[in-house]
Specification:
There is one protein chain. The radius of gyration is 23 Å and the shape is flat. It is built from 6 helices and 11 strands. The chain has 3 domains: 9-26 and 102-167, Thrombin, subunit H, CATH 2.40.10; 28-100; 179-240, no CATH class. It starts with 8 loop residues before the first strand and ends with a strand. A hairpin with a 5-residue loop joins strand 7 (138-142) and strand 8 (148-153). By secondary structure, the chain is α+β, with helices and mostly antiparallel strands. It has helices spanning 28-56, 65-72, 77-100, 158-167, 194-208, 212-224, and strands at 9-12, 21-24, 104-107, 111-116, 120-125, 131-135, 138-142, 148-153, 183-184, 227-232, 235-240.
């Protein structure tokens, strides 16, 4: 019996001819859950918020008491509907933000193309790729100097990503082949040249402000200086570039 293809991968004729393209994106079932579930959850929160506010307004130590008392006063039907509508709108916003954070990757035997809502579209030849792996839920593609060609969150399960990349001849790895080389960055430690420290200092500020575009551009600047960087929360870890 023919197996059913996973709903987060599909194949299309390649625009460049030759091999069929495999598109890896958010699983369809997850998209439906996010696009329907988050707005519904927001509406439910809007419905229950006045009830919860009435329960806590009697507390002696209550931060933002004026706000809590205002929410607790919501009783008219039109007011409840307005709160539900507000929750619905917030839920829709969260849903679209959640979907926009994930990469969509198109693979052929010759090239890979990565698309992200925040930093656009980029394409790389398979011959330029030395390693592909997952760092947590982050998909990482390295070139032959161990620079990060692609780095971004991907929603597909690891085994499906691995199978798709291997099917098109990409060097999928079980983990980062250079993981042991990373060191935690400490500003002014003397381990790095001052210009690298300066870029990492700016990058840390971009991380604090959650400026994804700036973080990405500053990562490229670090690589131009002969190193690369990855994050754990707001902590930065660096390593020298290594030729494969």
């Amino acid at each position: 019996m023919e197996s059913k293809r996973p709903d987060h991968t599909f194949r299309t004729p390649s625009a460049t001819g030759g091999s069929t393209a495999t598109v890896l994106g958010y699983p369809r079932s997850d998209k439906i859950l996010i696009l329907v579930g988050m707005p519904l959850a927001g509406a439910v929160v809007g419905l229950l918020l006045p009830v919860l506010a009435r329960q806590i307004t009697g507390l002696s130590k209550l931060p933002l008491r004026t706000v809590a008392e205002f929410v607790a006063s919501v009783e008219e039907t039109w007011q409840v509907v307005a709160f539900m509508a507000g929750g619905l709108v917030v839920g829709v916003g969260f849903a679209f933000v959640s979907l926009s954070e994930s990469l969509t990757v198109t693979l052929t035997d010759a090239r890979l193309e990565a698309v992200h809502d925040h930093w656009g579209r980029e394409s790389h030849a398979r011959a330029d790729v030395s390693a592909v792996f997952l760092d947590g839920r982050t998909l990482v593609v390295l070139d032959h100097d161990s620079r990060q060609l692609v780095r971004g969150t991907h929603a597909a399960p690891a085994r499906q990503l691995a199978a798709a990349f291997r099917a098109h001849g990409y060097p999928w790895q079980a983990g980062d082949p250079y993981a042991d080389l990373f060191q935690k960055w400490s500003p002014g430690s003397g381990a790095l040249r001052p210009e690298v420290d300066a870029v990492l200092t700016a990058r840390k500020e971009a991380l604090k402000h959650k400026s994804g575009y700036d973080v990405r551009e500053l990562t490229r600047a670090v690589e131009e200086l002969g190193h690369t960087v990855r994050d754990s929360g707001t902590e930065q870890f660096w390593r020298p570039l290594v030729q494969s």
